[in-house]
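User: Mind token order:
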Amino acid sequence: MAVLKVIEVLANSERSWEDATANAVKHASKSVKNIRSVYVNEQSATIKNGEIDDFRVNVKITFEVN
């Protein structure tokens, strides 16, 4: 039986929500091993001069605990 743990991570990107999600997984994987999945909990963006300036995500990352 596997034991799984979930952490919440906030990340951003100037390009897209997908890139922000990839950034969250990339940075989490530096200290967390056995990542199984990522769930995008919330998306938001900041606006500057009438255009999207920064894409932000709040994700839940699930990993197996050894």
